[in-house]
Every structure is written in C-alpha cells, then in structure tokens.
Amino acid sequence: MSRARGRAAVYSIAALAVLLVGAAVGMLVTLSVVRPESTPGAGSVDVGFAQDMRVHHLQAITMAGQARDRGADRKVRALAFDIESTQLDQSGRLAGWLAVWDQPELPPPGEPHMRWMPAEGHGGHGAGAAGAGVTRMPGMATSEELAKLRSLSGADLDVYFLQLMLRHHQGGLDMATFAAANAQTEHVRVLAEKIAAGQDAETRLMRSMLAERGAEPLPFP
Amino acid sequence: MANKTKNKGGKAALKAARASVVSKKGLPWGTIAAVAAVVLIAAGVFGYAYVQIDSVKEFTVSEENKDPSENIDGVVRAEYAGSQHVNADQRVAYDQSPPFGGPHDNYWADCSGIVYPVAVRNENMVHSLEHGAVWIAYNPDQVSGAALDTLKAKVEGQPHMMMSPYPGLDSPISLQSWGHQLKLSDANDERIDQFIRSLRANRFQNPEPGGRCDTGGTGFDPANPPPFVAEAPGPDAVKMDGSGIVPQEESEMTTTGAPTPTTTAAQPTQ
C-alpha cells in the first residue's frame, strides 16, 4: 500500500511546490515592475517623471499666468501665454497617463522627488546619493519668490518672471533629458524629448530677453 | 540503530538488514523536508508580495478604488452639488465647520501649495476644494511650534494644497476635501498623508479635479485674502441647496477682480 501512495503524495506535494514557486515568481515580477511596453509601475522612470514633471509644470503655469495677465511688454505676455498653455496641455497628458496606469496623479505626500533618476545626472542639482531624491526640485521657486512675483508689476514683473522662468526651465532640462532616454513607454519618451527641446529653445530666448532689459539670469543651480 | 549494530552473520544477514532499511525508507524524509522548505519560502514570498502590492494600492485612486479614504478611520462624508456660485457680498449657511462642500464664491482661494497665516473666508476655500484641493485647517490656539511646522511641510509648494488657521475649530486639526472631512489631533498622524494620497485631485470624488489653483486674473489676492467671518451667517445667507443665490449683476460680470466683501465690514480688514 504505502510505497505507491507515498510516492504519489510526494509527487503531488512537489507539483504543488512548483506551482507555488511559479505563483510567487509571478508576484515578484509584478512587484519589481518590469513590464516593458505595457503599464509602467510605481518606481519606474515613466511614473516618476510624469508625477514630478507635473508638479514642475504646475508651478511654471502659475508663474506664467502672472506674466500673461499683468506683464508690461507684449512679447513677455505672449511668451507667458505660450509657456502656460503648452505646459497645461502637457501636464494634462501626464495626469491622464498616470490615471490609466492606476498610479497617483501627483507624487505621494512626504516622499522625495526625483528618486527615479540618479542625482549626478548631468551636473544634477540633487543632493545625496544616487536615487535618494530631493525635497525641492531644481529650478523650483520658493513661496517667497512666488509672493514677490505676485507683488511686482510693470517692467519689474517682466524681468523677474523671465529670471524665475529661465531658472525653472534650466531645472527641468535634466529631468526631461533623462526621461527621454530612459522611459520605457514611447509616448513618455517623445513628450520628454519635446519638453527638453522646447524648453532649451525658450531658455535661449529668455536669456536674450533678459539681456535686452539689462538684467542678469538668477544663479543656477 | 538496529542496522548499525555489528553483525557477524555474514552477507545474508547484511542483505537482510539492508532490505529492512529499504523497506523502512518508505517515506523519504529528506525530500519531504526540502519540499516543505521550498513551499514555506514560496508562501512567504507570495504573502510578502501580496501585502506589499495591497498596501501600495490601498490609498491609490483607481477604477477599483474610487474612494481610497474608505480605508481611513474617521473620515466623514457628505454629498454636495458642485458649481453653485455666490457673490463676494453673500454668505453661505454651511452645514459643517469647517465646510467641505456646497455653494461657494465665484473666485477660488489660491491652493497652489499656500500656507495662509490668517483665516480665510469659507466661501473661497470651498471653491478650491471643488478643484481637487486638500485644505488643512488648524485651531490656532491648539496647534503651534513643531506640530505647525510638520503641517506646513505637507502644504508649502505642494500642488493642490492649502492651509489656514480656523478660529474656534472643535479639534486641533481638520482636513477637508470635497465631500470628505477628517478631524484629528496629532500632526504626525499617518492618516494625514493617507487622506492627501486618497483625495487630492481625485478624479472620482472632486467635481473639477485638476482645476486651477493659482488665482491670477480673478482678483483673489493670496497676500490679502478675504477674511474669515466668525459670526454665524444671517437669514439672508445662501442655503446648502443653493436657494438664495443672487444672480450675478451685469456690472460684476464685466469687472475684473473680486469686489471687496461687504459682509465683513466688522472685521479689521486692510
């Protein structure tokens, strides 16, 4: 009796073990988020870039709104309108992708930004070890700087807007360049490329607009 | 033990002993132990992965998890209709304090990561909730120092976040999102971040998620916001169902900027 049954039992348990190991591996694969071409998961470049660039863009939109409404020079107002509408559209695309991926549309509270890219990127501004993240992204204005922007008017507003936005664009460039090269989904890479190229061109424009006004760029990083 | 005892009976006895060993070996304990170990490891990995995935998903908005705040103890919910706008000289008889939904001013309060040092008019703050903002209100008599700094760090510079003192608040801290409120006493309570994760710009719970939080062009000045009014609203206040709303005047439609609230004349403004 026992030998055949015992062997059958052993084989059954072994088969069960193989199934369990398979299921466990499957779960680990889900966890480690290596699902190229399909849905980027938490911790991926795509999700990190989309969340952080969205926050970065939202501040640019806020600053541009000030210059679009109250700028003195029509060229400044037009540039602000361009930046505001472009980044608002891009921010909406990022939010839509995050929603489709079942990921938070904004970075989870209390967690550092930019953990999805190495701190030493391209002369990166980030402090700490690679991937440790930062609490304030490069180029982001402080609350005091934003309050100052709101308090200014006329030509002073034009200059300060150009200074803040130039530094803001400089700060976003590393993020966009890294995502353009490293995101797993093509539409993220394409958008990141466009952001990098567009902001690079606008950076040169804003430098010349500042020079026309006899003003210096803010220090960066 | 028995098969190890010295046997002088020669080959036959040895063979018998060997046979007895073979027959006794019906259950290969070594193999079973190995299999059991693999099963245990697999089960451990399985359970760990499951718990990890589950905890990440718990406060993440998705088609299957439209209101993750249901996983948070103590959240109060109410249904409110959006898009009912009152003028700057009107008040709303809110059914909650602080309010977290209902008719509100045409102009939203700035919610782009702003920490207001002074209490702000409810009617403006409620409009920001409609845009997906989370409002951290605190009782200025009960929250200060390190606790206040902890709360500020959750708000300053963060999209769709705003914070203000709320005189007379019946708990040290109160979190508001459109249709949701959580009152708590500890600035380090983990439910604060869970509430923000679950409800900020939540596309299922907020009427206009992702609506603008900056206020350029509306006339709402975050450096000098319309002040909070402590007195209960009078009988002329707009009801929660929107009755009593006065249509916008033709003159106001063409004016840029929010007119100065007249009902707050008793407050020391400007």
Q: What does this protein structure show overall?
A:
The complex is a heterodimer of chains A (221) and B (270). Chain A is an all-alpha fold. Chain A has 2 domains: 1-32; 40-212, Ferritin, core subunit, four-helix bundle (Ferritin). Chain A is built from 6 helices and no strands. In chain B, β5, α4 (145-155) and β6 (161-165) form a beta-alpha-beta unit. Chain B is elongated, with a radius of gyration of 32 Å. Chain B has 270 residues and is of the alpha/beta class. Chain B has 2 domains: 30-60; 74-242, no CATH class. Chain B contains 6 helices and 8 strands. Residues 1-7 and 250-270 of chain B have low confidence and may be disordered. Chain B has a 6-stranded mixed sheet. Chain B: This is DUF3105 domain-containing protein. Chain B: Pfam families: DUF3105 (PF11303).
Count of DSSP-assigned helices of chain B: 6
Question: How many domains make up the 3D coordinates of chain A?
Answer: 2
* Average pLDDT rating of chain A: 90
Q: What do we call the CATH homologous superfamily of the largest domain in chain A?
A: Ferritin, core subunit, four-helix bundle
Strand content of chain A: under 5%
Which class of secondary structure composition applies to the elements of chain A?
Answer: mainly alpha
Number of helices of chain A: 6
Radius of gyration of chain B: 32 Å
Quaternary state reads: heterodimer
Q: N-to-C terminal Cα separation of chain B, in Å?
A: 98 Å
The N- to C-terminal Cα distance of chain A equals 79 Å
So what's the CATH class of the largest domain in chain A?
A: Mainly Alpha
Tertiary shape of chain A: elongated
Instruction: Report the biggest beta sheet of chain B as strand number plus sense, adding barrel if it closes.
Output: 6 strands, mixed
What kind of sheet is the major sheet of chain A? none
